[in-house]
């Protein structure tokens, strides 16, 4: 895997790595379970997920999972991932999903991460970035709006849950 590092001077995004497993496991809370994973993680499950993410990087698979890192020690504050293929997406669209651990929320880090990862997605050939969030997930919707995403069409998720879509045209974004 070639090392990818994206930074805006405040945060750095780089691929998840095996030594992130403990911070990721202990950083999970009810909100991350509700909005992202659907069930509490296990150490073994987190380690397997990180191995899968590394395999995706190594094989140029459709998933690009980044750790959101803060400070000179690059403390893991959360994750953000891109899925270049996912149910409901059109060709050229990429799904953006993110989550911060509780102690890092409310600092604008997720918005910064979305902006950085959107530039990366555009450089990888994506035409539109899509954030899909349940209507009750007001924090995720606020991040999407702050990052310049426009409301799109609501649509059901794979399990029938209604998801609000937020879309950013990556062909014209000049940030």
Number of strands: 9
Q: Distance between the terminal alpha carbons, to the nearest Å?
A: 27 Å
CATH architecture: 3-Layer(aba) Sandwich
Structural class: alpha+beta
Contiguous uncertain segments of 5+ residues = none
Beta-strand portion reads 25-35%
Q: Order of helices and strands, N to C?
A: EEHHHEEEHEHEEE
CATH H-level superfamily title? Gcn5-related N-acetyltransferase (GNAT)
Helical proportion, percent range: 25-40%
Within the CATH hierarchy, at the fold level, what is the topology? Aminopeptidase
Largest sheet: 9 strands, mixed
Rounded mean pLDDT is 90
**What is Rg?**
15 Å
**Overall geometric form:** globular
How many domains make up the coordinates?
Answer: 1
Number of helices: 5
The CATH class turns out to be: Alpha Beta
Q: What does this protein structure show overall?
A:
There is one protein chain. The chain has 175 residues and is an alpha+beta fold. The model has no long low-confidence stretch (mean pLDDT 90). Strands 1, 2, 3, 4, 5, 6, 7, 8 and 9 form a 9-stranded mixed beta sheet that branches. Helix 1 (21-27) packs across helix 3 (43-59). It has one domain (6-169): Aminopeptidase, CATH 3.40.630. Helices cover 32% and strands 29% of the residues. This is GNAT family N-acetyltransferase. InterPro entries: Acyl_CoA_acyltransferase, GNAT_dom, Ribosomal_N-acetyltransferase. Residues 11-171 form the N-acetyltransferase domain.
């Amino acid at each position: 895997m070639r090392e990818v590092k994206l930074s805006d001077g405040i945060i750095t995004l780089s691929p998840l790595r095996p030594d992130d497993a403990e911070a990721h496991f202990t950083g999970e809370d009810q909100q991350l379970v509700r909005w992202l994973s659907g069930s509490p993680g296990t150490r073994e499950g987190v380690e397997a997920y990180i191995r899968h993410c590394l395999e995706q990087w190594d094989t140029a698979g459709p998933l690009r999972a980044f750790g959101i890192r803060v400070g000179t020690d690059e403390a893991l504050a959360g994750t953000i991932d891109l899925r270049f293929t996912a149910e409901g997406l059109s060709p050229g669209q990429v799904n953006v999903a993110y989550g911060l651990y509780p102690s890092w929320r409310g600092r604008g880090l997720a918005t910064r991460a979305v902006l950085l990862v959107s530039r990366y997605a555009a450089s990888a050939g994506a035409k539109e970035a899509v954030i899909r969030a349940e209507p009750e997930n007001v924090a995720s919707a606020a991040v999407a709006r702050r990052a310049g995403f426009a409301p799109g069409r609501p649509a059901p998720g794979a399990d029938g849950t209604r998801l609000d879509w937020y879309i950013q045209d990556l062909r014209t974004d000049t940030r």
